[in-house]
C-alpha cells in the first residue's frame, strides 16, 4: 500500500493529467478541423499543416513533461507548486493558440519515468538546450514571442533549481536590438551596484550573483557596437530608494522587470537568426531567474504585454 507521500504524489499527478487533457478535450470539442483531414480529391492539392505546427507540438510536449514531472517533487520543495501552475497556464494558452490557428492540438500522455524506467527529476526536465531553443527561432512572427517566453521560463527555472547550463551558440543581437536593450541593462547594473553598497558585507551574495553576469553581458554587447556605442548617462534615477531590505528587494524587482520587458520587446526582431535569438533569450532568462530570486512570482510569459 502506498504511503501518505506517495498517495499525495499520485493525486497531484492525476490533477495535472486531468488539467492538461481537459484543455485538449475542450478545444477538440469545438469542431475545429484541418482541411488536410478531408478526403483526397484528385486534381486538388491537399493543404499542408500550418508552418508552426511541428515546433509548437514539441513545445507542448515539453510543457506536459515538465508540468507532470513537478508532481514528483516533495511537498517541501519551495518552487514546484509555482512552476507547475506556470507551466499549466502556458500549456493552456499554447493549446488555445494552436486551435485558433487551425493546428491539430496534441493529445499526449506523459509518464514520469524515463526511457529506462528511471524517475524524471523535474529539475532536469526544466532545462532546455541550445538545439531546442534554436529550433524556435524560425517560428512565425505572431508565435515567436510566446514560444520564446516559454523557453525563457524553462531556463529561468533551471537557474533557480541549480541545473542551468548556458545554451551554446548564442551571439550578440544586431546593433539595433542591442541599443534598444542597453539602457535597461545599464540601469539594472547601476541599481545593483547601489544595492550592494547599501547592503552589509555579509549579505551581499545574492546581489553580487545578480550583478556579475549583467556586467559581462554589458561588456560584450557594448564592444559589439565599437565606436557607435552610446555614451553612458551622467547619472541614473533610481525608481525606489534602497534604504531598507524591503526597498532593496523592490528596486531589484523593478529594474529586472524593466530589463525583462526590454528583451521581450526585441525578441521578434531576432526571428530567423538562431545565434541572436539564443543570445537575447539567454539574457532574458537570466533576468527572469534573478527576479524570482528577489521575490517576483513566476509568470507564464514574462515581459510580454
Work out the helicity level: 55-70%
Give the helices and strands as they follow along the chain: HHHHHHHHHH
CATH fold topology of the largest domain = Ferritin
CATH class of the largest domain: Mainly Alpha
The CATH architecture category of the largest domain equals Up-down Bundle
Count of domains: 2
**Total number of helical segments?**
10
Count the E strands: 0
Distance between the termini: 48 Å
Instruction: Report the major sheet.
Output: none
Structural class: mainly alpha
Radius of gyration: 21 Å
CATH superfamily of the largest domain: Ferritin, core subunit, four-helix bundle
Shape: globular
**What number is the mean pLDDT?**
85
> Which parts are unreliable, with pLDDT below 50 for 5 consecutive residues or more?
27-36, 110-119
Q: Tell me the fraction of residues in β-strands, as a range.
A: under 5%
Protein name: DUF4439 domain-containing protein
Pfam families: DUF4439
Write the layout of secondary structure elements.
Elements lengths: L3 H25 L24 H17 L10 H21 L21 H5 L3 H5 L9 H18 L13 H23 L7 H21 L19 H22 L7 H20 L12
Helix pairs in contact: 1-2, 1-3, 2-3, 6-10, 7-8, 7-9, 8-10, 9-10
Explain what the structure shows.
The chain is 58% helix and 0% strand. With 305 residues, the chain is mainly α. It is globular, with a radius of gyration of 21 Å. The chain has helices at residues 4-28, 53-69, 80-100, 122-126, 130-134, 144-161, 175-197, 205-225, 245-266, 274-293. Helix 1 packs parallel to helix 3 and helix 7 (175-197) runs antiparallel to helix 9. The chain folds into 2 domains: 4-36 and 49-126, no CATH class; 175-293, Up-down Bundle (Ferritin), CATH 1.20.1260.10.
